[in-house]
Design goal:
472 residues; mainly alpha; Serine Threonine Protein Phosphatase 5, Tetratricopeptide repeat; 3 domains; two-stranded antiparallel ribbon; two-stranded antiparallel sheet; Membrane protein; signal
């Protein structure tokens, strides 16, 4: 694994290395040994973690390969001949040598490394103590997010709590990784503020740390803690945006529903994001990949306004007045409307859709986590109340489910349609034990495809310390 982690470390905030061939000074790169010395260095180092959130590896193709396409709600998109290799993720034929599997792995470890630089180096800087503590808490919150991604996709992974002298260590267990995540989020939540001023929008908050913590408890099936933690988030004053379309447009960014949101403002420093561009209407607003499936269309109940505000169609006129072109007849005809940026608001300096923020965690999901946990605890009334809050915004009647089993299915269904195309469907199917039933027709193999493989070169370079996931 040494080679993998050295390649990860070769970013502008890199731990020094004794290998001679790495000692050559690269122009424009600041060595970590001379970097973390001032308050501004601490801020810049923390900002480098945030910049990864909008990066290609975290929000574009590699992200969609593992969280998007394997679900039944997303298809490759574009036309049949364009990037046909993506079909490997749709039919579960990817292998240990697949570039996408490896790319997502490397990207998340790059992000962990950036967070560990801040967590390890910033405490030694002479600077404002409150700011110091806050930046370390931000780094811990973000490190927890990256580890949450890793453990859901690859299973148990090595835990690196700070900078290491030896990165070639065995995988920790899934439970150990989750406990590490919980520790980071609990620590961060105790320090982070509830909100920031306009200049710092996008920095993680107490609500973001508690919200992600509640989702971790959901995955661990620790229902009492998931319920209690979501109640803490609810008490912080979040609310549903009454307009589902407004929620995903630039005007709805950092609104009442925003719990954890990536600021993708186009700037000279960060250059926007390609999150929206790769999914935008082909030959008009983007590349046309990762588009809604017919199965997703069929999942919406009659009268659910979210259907037409989630699925963008060729030939339609958007609420903002843009005519969606008919496009190439060989290409798909529907797209993800949640990433649509109205033409009048697009900033051409950073590419189409670069200003579109990435909503990682919304208050609607907090309500649904609360409802699921309440139902599993036997608190039917609380489960129905929060489930119906989400349904009411979608202009649907209250649920008719009343038993625990029926409510469980209703809540799972509501997650599917409320969070459609937001990267939760595949991992939700695995988490809830539905993957084999729903995804077997696509090629899913139970006991194997719940996790992705550890990249082959990582296995080879571990000198026997790393074990591969079952079935690969």
């Amino acid at each position: 694994m040494k080679k993998i982690f050295l390649s990860i470390a070769l970013v502008s905030l890199l731990a020094s290395c004794k290998d001679d061939f790495l000692d050559i000074k690269e122009e424009g790169v600041i060595e970590a040994s001379t970097f973390f010395t001032t308050e501004q260095d601490a801020m810049n180092g923390t900002n480098a973690i945030y910049s990864f959130l909008r990066s290609w590896d975290n929000s574009a193709f590699p992200y969609q390969f593992v969280f998007g396409v394997p679900a039944d709600d997303v298809v490759k998109g574009s036309n049949p001949g364009d990037a046909s290799f993506i079909n490997e993720y749709d039919n579960f034929t990817y292998t240990v040598s697949n570039d996408g599997v490896r790319g997502y792995w490397i990207g998340q470890w790059q992000a962990v490394n950036r967070a560990n630089q801040v967590i390890s180096k910033v405490p030694g800087i002479e600077m404002n103590a409150d700011l110091k503590n806050r930046l370390v808490a931000e780094a811990k919150m973000l490190r927890a997010y990256f580890y949450f991604n890793l453990v859901r996709i690859y299973g148990g992974v090595p835990i690196f709590d700070g900078l290491q002298t030896n990165y070639n260590i065995p995988r920790n267990s899934v439970d150990e990784v989750y406990n590490f995540i919980i520790s980071d989020l609990t620590s961060a939540a105790a320090v982070l503020p509830q909100s920031y001023g306009a200049a710092d929008l996008g920095r993680v908050t107490k609500g973001a740390a508690l919200g992600l913590l509640s989702k971790v408890y959901l995955y661990k099936k620790d229902w009492q803690k998931a319920y209690d933690t979501t109640n803490q988030v609810i008490a912080l004053g979040y609310g549903l945006d009454p307009d589902f379309n407004h929620l995903f447009r630039p005007a709805g960014e950092f609104g009442s529903e925003s719990v954890f949101e990536v600021n993708c403002q186009c700037s000279a420093q960060f250059g926007g994001s390609q999150y929206a561009e790769v999914q935008g209407v082909r030959n008009q607003f983007g590349w046309g990949f990762f588009t809604p499936s017919q199965a997703l269309e069929n999942a919406f109940e009659p009268g659910d306004i979210r259907k037409e505000l989630t699925i963008l169609r060729n030939g339609e006129i958007t609420p903002e007045g843009d005519l969606i072109a008919m496009g190439d007849p060989q290409s798909v005809t529907t797209y993800n409307q949640k990433v649509y940026v109205p033409k009048a608001l697009n900033n051409n300096a950073c590419g189409y859709g670069s200003i579109q923020n990435i909503r990682i965690l919304r208050f609607a999901e907090i309500l649904l986590i609360n409802a699921e946990a309440a139902n599993e605890l036997g608190n039917t009334a609380a489960a129905i109340t929060n489930l119906n809050k989400v349904r009411t915004r979608a202009q649907l009647p209250g649920t008719t489910a009343s038993t625990q089993t029926a409510l469980r299915a209703a809540i799972w269904h509501e997650r599917r349609v409320e969070l459609a195309l937001e990267g939760d469907r595949f991992v939700d199917l695995v988490r809830t034990g539905q993957a084999a039933t729903v995804l077997t027709p696509y090629g899913f193999k139970a006991g194997k495809n719940e996790l992705f493989p550890i990249p082959l070169d990582v296995i080879n370079e571990s000198n026997g310390l790393f074990t591969q996931n079952p079935g690969y």
